[in-house]
């Protein structure tokens, strides 16, 4: 768990950071200063309008980051945390990127107005979301088709591919006769043999034409020869008596294309898995870095609106001591008031303040800026 916090001060940035680090590190937390560049502030009205939008944009971007990571795990089964690609081409684990966050001025120009900068960050992520949706749809389509073939090959006789099971000599198909394939539960074999010639009162069933072609643990596949003109009625009679009819045609799809199709789908699946895995790795890096920069914009915007001009606040990443999150927030609040020369008379935060660690990621009632940095890979 990490937090992006902004703390106002009256004296100097260095003094404020020293006080924050000394207090929190003594309590077991870690503090990493963030040097935010001077961003183009614009008008008060534009800041107010942007502030309303930033929370919504942040939620959307966090959702996409989480989605990309889940798809990456699903496709590549990675066990380690994802990596972020830095401007110089090197990489580092995402958690390390959080604690070493530095504004990328080359990619996100500080000369742009804040609304324009925000738009760029949001578009980075929405583009990824759209591309991933299309790629994932194609991937799931191929995976579903391959799973269906595998299921038919390895499943029971109710769904299993009949290629290789039904031999040409067992399937009689002439101008007047045809063969019906019926799947019979093993416990109904006796019923089948006793009734198959007279099912539904239908005549024109070839006597003693049934033959067991294949068995598995639960079912047997029988064939029976009937006149073509009564084939449909006979199939309906089978179903009414809880015997399952399998569709099959000599020379049809079951006679050879299934194996070729499986090979084609397996090759396509391997190709798409590699492509989607690489896309997710690259996209996670882009989306997460964009999200961190948006959080920086949000922290800067909230600090200006709350503390005024000129900007006098320190930004830092705080990694709270395990199981001491509430204590850490209270300490930051007390530090904030003391840095502003205010008397601290009571605790800053209590359990009754609400879901501080909920999905909103920010708490307006605190005297400092508080943004969560969700780390979905942990």
Automatic annotation (TrEMBL):
Keywords: Hydrogen ion transport, Ion transport, Transport. GO terms for cellular component: vacuolar proton-transporting V-type ATPase, V1 domain. Belongs to the V-ATPase C subunit family. It comes from the Eukaryota. Subunit of the V1 complex of vacuolar(H+)-ATPase (V-ATPase), a multisubunit enzyme composed of a peripheral complex (V1) that hydrolyzes ATP and a membrane integral complex (V0) that translocates protons. V-ATPase is responsible for acidifying and maintaining the pH of intracellular compartments and in some cell types, is targeted to the plasma membrane, where it is responsible for acidifying the extracellular environment. Subunit C is necessary for the assembly of the catalytic sector of the enzyme and is likely to have a specific function in its catalytic activity. It holds the Pfam family V-ATPase_C. InterPro entries: ATPase_V1-cplx_csu, Vac_ATP_synth_c_sf. The gene is vatc. It comes from Stygiella incarcerata. GO terms for molecular function: proton-transporting ATPase activity, rotational mechanism. This is V-type proton ATPase subunit C.
